[in-house]
Write a structure and sequence with these properties.
single chain; 635 residues; alpha/beta; 4-stranded parallel beta sheet; 43% helix; globular; golgi apparatus
């Protein structure tokens, strides 16, 4: 069958739909399955940068071009009609002069050629202008579907299946300014510019497309930083992956950390060397970030995020939790360390990296600043910020934890229940200390690199809130999150909240204790059964116990062999005469073993992470580190 002749712009149908879906084999099914989408396009100048309801999306150059083309096409049609009339007159003998007829026909041909060429030039010029506008515009998405802002007459909307497309050519409509409330969009994370801005989108979309949810992300890397509420986020990720049978990139040999503080290496993950795991979904245990090695383990479409905390409050927490490290051991107070202790601060001693710019260290940068070198702080701070922005899709802020969970929920396309949580690895108020403004100033100066990171990403955090959610909507969603947390606390928690570790009845739910901090835990309501009990229990399971559970689930044979080895070692040990802390008496199994390792670490030094080479550790050395490097297992 010969192809149908090309229609002019005026003669084209409003939409043309093409599909290669096997389900649509006849006209009736085609009309039922294909989407009926209407949208119009326009370009407006100096509009705000975010759009929610896209209306009348079309090039501003189009009306001028169409009007010119319309008049020129009408003139061309008249010329053709006159030419046909002359031919007819000649055939009926009414042409009086052959020479005059040929001259007139020649002039008509020249005029017609000129008209056609002018129309073509106008079209070419219009396409060039619109292509230039298109090249300056970003992609606009609806969930996971992409709207490609093409030239008039060939705007393609990709909807779900790659074989369906909608090609639109619509008459021009006068531009209408959008209200401020209409210009917010969670799907336009980047500004579209102010000189020539696309304002507009889908007017009418069938309900299936309008309500179609985005696709939840299941490939995730969370850089777990220290003393930033990261254990709570770890529990969120554990619960999400556990309930969906996703695969975690867990530490080798049942560690709780990825051999921190050494730079991460791919063979630190269980299943990498043996190739027993085909694909990892989530990596979220403590590590010192090293992007090339992480990318060896995780898929290309992985979502990277982390969390920061104000270095002032963070330093107060670190001083209490890591009081036994060499840098803090002799200091009578945090002020005493900041005033005098730093003079004897030795970067070569084990675990002293906790004492200074720990956030910078966790992200993989040198945490020690040369204060007598001009510009050293600014240069290294800018370098770290640039690298983090390049490697991570989202940086959360601990002081705005609920707002952070709303941003995370939207970024990952998860539900509210996926991000609801109870605080884990949180200290009792009795071990918290108020800091004076003078002490805060000294902390900011001592941790100047961390302070730079915090200031920068605190600003970008709120910019993202404004660009993707809006302050009013954020308040509403935070309220819903807090209400859901309160409902779960009423259902799950016996005492309505956290209690001191000595009061936790279930030994399997007792949190790990370290340093001078008192880490609180939870008691579950009696009578919980079935899925409700499982859900409540997962919400309050501490990090070390949950890590062990997931390891056993993913690697049952390895876990069984390790249990047998642990029993053999335990049977050969002599009874200890050490006085037991009542807060720790109920801890059993792997938690108690890790506590013993911590005690040994306090009495023995180990390799300095600053002296570690970039190639990290060979796999043969990992087993030797297990017993002597107990700080790898600190939450």
């Amino acid at each position: 069958m010969p192809p149908s002749p090309r229609k002019s712009i005026k003669e084209r149908e409003l939409f043309s739909l093409t599909s290669s879906l096997p389900c649509c084999s006849n006209d009736k099914m085609l009309s039922e399955k294909l989407l009926n989408v209407q949208f119009t396009i326009k370009i407006q100048r100096t509009l705000p940068t975010e759009q929610r309801d896209w209306v009348h999306l079309r090039s501003s150059h189009t009306p001028v071009v169409e009007e010119e083309m319309r008049s020129q096409e009408e003139g061309a049609l008249k010329q053709r009609a006159k030419g046909k009339q002359k031919v007819a007159e000649h055939q009926h003998g009414r042409d009086e002069s052959g020479v005059e007829r040929r001259v007139q026909e020649h002039h008509q041909h020249l005029k017609l050629s000129y008209t056609v060429n002018k129309v073509k030039d106008s079209r070419k010029e219009a396409r060039g202008k619109v292509s230039a506008v298109k090249a300056a515009l970003p992609k606009v998405t609806l969930g996971d579907d992409e709207l490609d802002l093409g030239v008039p007459g060939s705007v393609v909307l990709q909807l779900g299946h790659p074989s369906i497309k909608v090609v639109s050519t619509l008459p021009y409509k006068p531009p209408e300014l959008l209200s401020t409330n209409q210009l917010k969009s969670r799907n336009s994370p980047a500004p579209l510019g102010t000189d020539s801005v696309v304002a507009g989108v889908i007017n009418e979309v069938k309900s299936e497309v309008a309500s179609a949810p985005c696709r939840p992300k299941n490939h995730i890397v969370f850089l777990k930083t220290h003393k930033t509420a990261s254990s709570t986020i770890l529990n969120i990720l554990y619960r999400y992956g556990d309930s969906r049978n996703l695969t975690f990139a867990l530490p080798l040999n049942k560690h709780s950390q990825l051999f921190y503080p050494f730079f991460f290496a791919s063979h630190f993950v269980e299943g990498v060397r043996s190739r027993s795991v085909k694909e990892f979904n989530i990596m979220c245990n403590h590590m010192r970030f090293r992007p090339p090695e992480v990318r060896k383990v995780m898929p290309q479409d992985t979502f990277y995020f982390s969390i920061l905390k104000n270095p002032v409050a963070m330093m107060e927490s670190i001083f209490i939790y890591y009081k036994s490290i060499p840098a803090f051991h002799k200091a009578r107070s945090l002020d005493d360390f900041l005033d005098n202790g730093w003079r004897g601060y030795n970067t070569s001693l084990p675990n002293n990296h906790y004492a200074r710019n720990i956030l910078t260290f966790d992200f993989g940068f040198d945490n020690n600043v040369v204060t007598d070198t001009p510009g050293d702080l600014e240069t290294r701070g800018a370098k770290a910020i640039g690298a983090i922005e390049q490697d991570f899709h989202l940086i959360l802020i601990s002081e705005y934890f609920d707002e952070s969970m709303i941003l995370l929920k939207r970024a990952l396309c998860w539900s509210l229940d996926d991000v609801v949580s109870f605080k884990l690895n949180s200290r009792s108020e009795r071990t918290r200390h108020m800091l004076s403004p003078h002490t805060a100033d000294k902390i900011r100066a001592w941790n100047a690199l961390d302070w730079q990171l915090y200031l920068h990403f605190n600003i970008t955090f709120w910019r993202r809130v404004d660009a993707t959610v809006g302050r009013e909507e954020m308040r509403r969603e935070v309220t819903r999150l807090q209400e859901r947390r309160a409902e779960l606390a009423k259902t799950c928690l016996k005492d309505g909240g956290a209690v001191d570790p000595s009061q936790v009845k279930d030994a399997g739910l007792k949190p790990f204790q370290y340093g001078a901090a008192i880490i609180q835990g939870y008691n579950l309501n009696p009578g919980l059964v079935g899925p409700t009990k499982t859900h409540c229990q997962n919400l309050v399971t501490p990090e070390l116990q949950y890590t062990d559970t997931l390891y056993t689930k993913q690697f049952p044979e390895l876990a069984a062999r390790q249990r047998q080895a642990a029993k053999l070692v335990a049977s050969q040990r002599q009874p200890s005469s050490v006085k037991v802390n009542p807060n720790k008496a109920a801890m059993t199994g792997p938690v108690r073993v890790r506590e013993a390792r911590h005690s040994r670490t306090a009495r023995s030094g180990h390799r300095n992470p600053h002296a570690q080479k970039q190639n990290d550790l060979p796999s043969s050395a990992l087993s030797k580190i297990t017993a002597a490097r107990s700080d790898r297992n600190m939450p």
